[in-house]
Design a protein that fits this description.
binds flavin-adenine dinucleotide
Length: about 400
């Protein structure tokens, strides 16, 4: 068997969380090696909403200036009733919001964020990057941690960060818990040129049309050259282990009762690929001696608060700080990081679940939601202070 490649910090997974973690660790003075299983670094999917808590983390990672070149700064986050077409409530994310949280709400293309993080990693001589490395098994050997790849190669590291997403092999080692839970909802998403947009409720806004067991999200990305759309609905044909559910026929049937602007938007939604929605219950233990989890590997959540990537960025900043504070005691750094993060991310995971339920109400439930939210002022930020005002 070939001997293991010796590295200092090994990050498994080169998604948003993994690359952000590499930057944070390098800024804390550590050498970092990132392994990614895909042949190229890249993101599938379309838009990403980044709330002020993420903008703050991106600033601390030194890339917020690059974000400003491609990001779009919406004026309002608006919820509309997908059946009646009425506005339910809105959050003004303009000057007053930015003054309150110190950072803006920004929306952008996923590719653009990943490209910015990747360029920053490539420019940092403390970071090395390797693709085509599918880590199959992770372990802790007391004085080092070990990662074995499917191709037979392995790495011996001072520390391993598993930023390897929803199906994380690192999590199998740390938590050994059950498989992710399928919400039985599925998303279709994609971008179209902004000039081709036929139906919207404000190109300056992030818009969510909320309906019975469905929603549609729309917002501009990439300097407002593209328009991102995500349609989500509950499939009644879900069978565990099967791919024959959440089809485009079900998509059309689910959205048939919605108002005309939503139905019109649906004709322009990306239909080439479907994304089943998963999460997991929160866990308190993210670390084992020299191995730690980060991002979706630690706290996969439903996307209803648009916080999965934001939380991964917060994780990265917190991890970098903990490593800087604890010198060569990696295990102590990882425990400090875990203790600083697990209750916050648990709150986001559980609130995302709850908020999804509120968005997907029908009949009397929907009327009650709309009635209760009708008197909310656009500049009442009290419900989101805990989320957006957090300094990682
Ligand atoms: C429809 C939808 C909309 C969303 N919208 C938002 C939003 O607006 N705002 C927001 O903040 N979040 C949003 N999210 C959530 C967000 O996309 C995720 O939380 C975020 O991408 C997680 O990043 P990550 O780096 O932890 O994991 P991932 O993005 O899953 O990256 C994991 C990486 O690890 C690699 N990998 C996996 N296994 C291995 C292995 N064995 N060996 C080596 N490499 C491996 C993968 O190839 C991948 O590159 C949304 C999610 C969905 C589904």
């Amino acid at each position: 068997m070939p001997s293991a490649t010796r590295v200092s910090f090994l990050v498994i997974g080169g998604g948003i969380g993994g690359l952000a973690a590499a930057l944070a660790l390098a800024r804390a003075g550590r050498r970092v090696h990132v392994v990614e299983k895909s042949p190229e670094f890249g993101e599938i999917g379309a838009g990403l909403q980044l709330a002020p808590n993420a903008s703050r983390a991106l600033d601390l990672l030194g890339v917020v200036g690059e974000i400003a070149k491609v990001g779009v700064y919406p004026k309002r986050l608006v919820m509309l009733d997908a059946v009646s077409g009425d506005v339910v409530t809105a959050l003004d994310v303009g000057a007053k919001f930015q003054a309150r949280y110190g950072y803006p709400y920004v929306v952008m293309h996923r590719h653009d964020l990943l490209a910015i993080l990747l360029a920053a990693c490539r420019a940092n001589e403390a970071i090395t990057l390797e693709t085509g490395k599918d880590v199959a098994e992770v372990g802790d050997r007391g004085d080092h941690a070990l990662a074995r790849c499917a191709d037979g190669s392995s790495y011996a590291a001072d520390a391993i960060i598993g930023a390897d997403g929803l199906w994380s092999p690192t999590r199998r080692f740390i938590a050994g818990d059950a498989r992710p839970v399928c919400a039985q909802f599925v998303a279709y998403r994609g971008t179209i040129p902004i000039s081709a947009v036929s139906s919207h409720a404000g190109l300056d806004n992030v818009v969510m049309w909320a309906g019975p067991d469905l929603h549609l999200v729309q917002y501009p990305v990439r300097r407002a050259e593209l328009f991102n759309q995500v349609a989500v609905f509950r499939s009644h044909r879900y069978v565990e282990g099967s791919d024959d559910w959440g089809t485009v026929e079900e998509l059309d049937a689910a959205f048939a009762p919605t108002c005309e602007p939503v139905r019109a938007a649906l004709t322009q939604i990306g239909r080439g690929r479907r994304w089943p929605m998963f999460d997991r219950p929160p866990i308190a233990r993210w670390t084992h001696n020299r191995v730690a989890l980060l991002g979706d590997a630690a706290h996969p959540m439903l996307q209803y608060l648009a916080q999965g990537a934001c939380q991964a960025l917060e994780d990265a900043v917190c991890l970098g700080r903990a490593v800087a504070d604890h010198g060569s005691d990696v295990a102590a750094a990882f425990l400090a990081y875990q203790d600083a993060r697990y209750l916050r991310t648990a709150r986001v995971q559980l609130t995302a679940h709850f908020f999804g339920g509120v968005c997907h109400l029908a009949d009397v439930g929907a009327t009650l939601r709309n009635t209760l939210l009708a008197d909310r002022a656009d500049d009442d930020f009290s419900a989101v202070d805990w989320l957006y005002g957090h300094a990682a």
